[in-house]
Specification:
- With 824 residues, this protein is α/β, with parallel strands linked by helices.
- 40% of the residues lie in helices and 15% in strands.
- The protein contains 19 helices and 47 strands.
- A six-stranded mixed β-sheet has the order 3-5-9-12-15-16. The protein has a six-stranded mixed β-sheet with strand order 32-35-40-43-46-47, with no helix packed on it.
- α6 packs across α17 and α7 packs across α11.
């Protein structure tokens, strides 16, 4: 049986429930009494944080049936809440011991140290083999050849390098693991080291990401042991690790950012289990399929949803939500069209040719030519930088790295800005909105180029959380006019499948993590559509906004909400959860800074914020470039300074050092600014200088440079360097922590891929924050979100794709899940 969200009710409703609820709420609000007919939000001025504390107090009493935040929003008075609980069917009470999770699998300090040492040795050995192959290959490419022959050698070498790098993970998987079977592996053990090596090799091949969305990706997964049927379309870049346990039937579609890893980390162990999808299935955007889940033939799971372990969607049924439940909504809305096997084969062949004979040679040859050109420029400007032997002096090394890093970093920014502004506009003329086209043709290739440019992360990070993001989005094609400038119209993560077909209404504010989905895909066809977010909306973190969304003006789209695509158009309300339900659009506490958002106060505040944000952008560019310079100087030293018997060993060590040095440098930069920044305020306006410091730290987050340390003991060292209070032997497979100094993580916690701990919130121009604490042995599931002011007791667990709302208290060894989360 799959986990079910439950609320243990006493066999008979408490007769004095109304008066007891009123007493608890009055105590939380710190007032003398509360009327049983007063509206929690409109009349009493409560907000979700206050009501979360109310729910926690109720759960702790023991003489009342527990209530959830969803109950509170559905029944926003004491009288209606007590009546709703009394009307529920009685459920037999269970002892607390029956609800408690099993004890975490203990980890061992000696294994922890040994695991880190073996992972470091593997990293160095892999770098050494890579250097050995690269030096021999480049020697062959550069040796006694010129003109066409030199180019052909470059093409052959780069193509062979791509094939080898692609084949190594496949060979390693079969040699080290064989076939994956359902099992549990103790974290940090020798068995875990084998798991980590194979997972890392599979994920570290950059060429694989060029195969996603093409028929070649299915072939690659088959080579790794997955059972992939013909005509499967996989658009997600979340590469599964335990592939033998993955089964996908013919004609199935898996959308972008869907997660189906076939493993999860939980309570001191790696749990490996199957994910099975039948024929003609559909998995929506940003949806999570946990281990031991299945979908029958023709089944659908909508966007922003999750199948938790043990859940199974029967054939032909449609489910959505987190955890998923049955729905009548059809998520596969683009009609099929003929797409022959010849067409698929031709597209696959052309993709492979493009990778082997175009992209790989251009990348390797371009970097080589750039390095040669910089070296000659340095020698021309100052011949004294080289010894007579041709080996660079220390001075020459620094000068060459300086010029190379400036050209590479700022040149890439300039070229990138031109590309994202011009290419989508030019290519969009080849695709008619709302027209249905077959997959794997010229138009499909054009659409993929537009989508990849529209989903670049660097430029929104550069301009986000400032007035300049509006100009950038207008440059790339978004329709934003007329703009009501706030200085925080958009966060630093704004993605779109087609910027030219995306519009955002006047007065709308967007937090981080917005993903606008302009395309719909079947196993044979696709179409792109215009997507419009209405006027005066607020869009919270991690929201996927699909075509045909049934939301209009003046809506609050809460964190991780599933935006509806059917039913009436929602206006003037808030939406929370997956599946979504209505909540108040705003509360009194958020209106206390309204006087700063108009007139002369706004003009002065916005001008000062723009000046501060401009300085933040300058600091961002400077620190990012210094990181590139640091890596460049180490890599140039590896290439040009050392020769002799130990040349390959020294080069491998330096190349490995450059990645480590980059992570330590960026973590140190963030840690330094965390130390300099005033403590985040509990609540303030976005025109408060203390908030601008928070935005500065957001922009300098080192998260993107820490991925290579996922699943290793070294990740915890970096988090401590940044400022997180983190315990012993914490397992981190890719968590994002927005406010390090407000986050405390206990010993032996488990943090899964794409999980997030966000100790702050910004809604409609009001910033709020508070500390969150995870006790020892806690588990945060894949894609789960922990908000601010949260406490999780020792040994408790949050299921995959859950949203633990602000102010919640999870008892020790309790299992919570869902969006919003409650006891399971």
């Amino acid at each position: 049986m799959h986990p079910t969200l439950i609320e243990d009710r006493p066999s008979v409703a408490t007769p004095g429930a109304e008066s007891t609820f009123a007493e608890v709420l009055a105590d939380v609000l710190r007032i003398d009494r509360v009327s049983v007919d007063s509206h929690f939000f409109d009349e009493l001025g409560a907000d979700s944080l206050v009501m979360a504390h109310f729910c926690a107090r109720v759960r702790k009493r023991g003489d009342l049936p527990p209530v959830s935040m969803k109950d509170v929003y559905a029944h926003p008075t004491i009288r209606s809440l007590a009546a709703a609980i009394a009307d529920l069917a009685p459920m037999p009470a269970r002892p607390a011991a029956a609800r408690a999770l099993e004890l975490p699998t203990p980890t061992r300090a000696r294994e922890y140290v040994l695991c880190g040492g073996l992972q470091a040795l593997f990293y160095l050995a892999y770098a050494y083999l890579g250097v050995l192959a690269a030096t021999e290959g480049y020697a062959w490419v550069a040796g006694e050849s010129e003109g066409v022959e030199s180019y052909l050698r470059l093409v052959l070498f780069s193509g062979a390098a791509v094939l080898v790098v692609t084949a190594v993970p496949i060979a390693a998987k079969w040699l080290i693991i064989g076939r994956w079977k359902p099992q549990s592996i103790r974290i940090w053990s020798l068995a875990y080291v084998r798991f980590w090596i194979v997972k890392t090799l599979i994920r570290s091949n950059p060429g694989i990401y060029l195969l996603v969305g093409s028929p070649l990706y299915g072939l690659y997964l088959r080579a790794l042991g997955a059972k992939i049927g013909p005509g499967v379309v996989i658009l997600s870049r979340r590469i599964p690790a335990c592939t033998d346990l993955l089964t996908i039937g013919a004609g199935t579609v898996i959308r972008k950012e869907a997660t189906f890893l076939c493993y999860r980390a939980r309570a001191g162990r790696i749990e490996i289990g199957p994910v099975t999808i039948g024929r003609d299935g559909y998995v929506g955007e940003t949806t999570v399929l946990d281990i031991d889940t299945s979908m029958g033939d023709g089944a659908q799971v909508g966007h922003s949803s999750a199948l938790l372990s043990g859940q199974s969607v029967p054939a032909g049924e449609r489910w959505h939500g987190s955890p998923a439940q049955r729905t009548e909504t059809n998520y596969l809305r683009v009609p099929p069209i003929r797409c022959s096997r010849t067409r698929r084969t031709a597209y696959a062949v052309l993709t492979l040719i493009g990778i082997l004979f175009l992209w790989a040679p251009l990348l390797e040859g371009g970097l080589g030519l750039l390095l040669i050109g910089v070296s000659r420029l340095v020698e021309l400007l100052d011949p004294s930088v080289q010894y007579s032997t041709g080996v660079l002096t220390i001075r020459g090394l620094v000068v060459e790295a300086l010029i190379f890093s400036v050209v590479l970093f700022f040149g890439a920014i300039l070229v990138g800005l031109l590309a994202v502004g011009a290419v989508p506009r030019v290519l969009s003329v080849f695709i008619e909105p709302d027209a249905v086209y077959p997959l794997y043709g010229v138009r499909y290739g054009v659409h993929r180029v537009i989508s990849r440019l529209g989903r670049l992360e660097f430029f929104p990070l550069l301009f986000g959380d400032s007035s300049y993001i509006v100009r950038y989005l207008s440059w790339v094609g978004y329709h934003l006019s007329p703009v009501v400038q706030t200085g925080s119209n958009f966060g630093s993560e704004v993605l779109s499948s087609n910027p030219v077909l995306t519009s955002v209404g006047s007065g709308t504010m967007v937090a981080d993590g917005l993903s606008v989905v302009n395309d719909e895909v079947s196993s044979t066809s696709f179409r792109v559509s215009r997507v419009a977010i209405g006027r005066r909306n607020f869009v919270g973190n991690d929201v996927t906004y699909p075509p045909g969304a049934a939301t209009g003006e003046n809506c609050l789209l809460a964190i991780k909400v599933m935006v509806p695509i059917d039913g009436k158009v929602r206006e003037g309300v808030g939406l929370l959860g997956s599946p979504p339900f209505e909540i108040p659009r705003s509360v009194d506490r958020d209106s206390q800074f309204d006087h700063l958002r108009t007139g002369e106060a706004l003009r002065r505040g916005l001008a000062a914020k723009n000046r501060f944000n401009l300085g933040t952008i300058g600091i961002f560019l400077l620190t990012r470039w210094l990181g590139v310079f640091l890596v460049t100087i180490i890599d140039v030293a590896a290439v040009e300074r050392f020769y002799g018997v130990f040349a390959h060993t020294i080069m491998a060590a330096l190349f490995a050092l450059s990645a480590v040095a980059a992570a330590v440098y960026y973590a140190s930069v963030e840690g330094a600014f965390e130390a300099l920044t005033p403590p985040p305020p509990v609540i303030c306006s976005i025109y408060d200088r203390r908030f601008w410091w928070v935005e500065r730290v957001w922009k300098l987050h080192a998260f993107h440079f820490l991925h290579i340390f996922n699943g290793t003991p070294f990740k915890n060292v970096l988090w401590r360097l940044i400022g997180v209070r983190i315990g012993k032997r914490v397992y981190d497979d890719g968590v994002y922590i927005s406010e390090p100094t407000l986050t405390a993580i206990g010993d032996e916690c488990v943090l899964n891929e794409r999980s997030k701990i966000q100790c702050e919130s910004q809604e409609d121009g009001t910033f709020k924050s508070g500390p969150s604490t995870l006790g020892a042995g806690c588990t945060i599931g894949v894609g789960a979100f922990v908000h601010y002011g949260v406490t999780m007791g020792d040994g408790s667990a949050l299921a995959a794709d859950s949203f633990l709302m602000k102010g919640e208290h999870v008892p020790p060894r309790a299992q919570w899940g869902g969006n919003p989360a409650r006891e399971m």
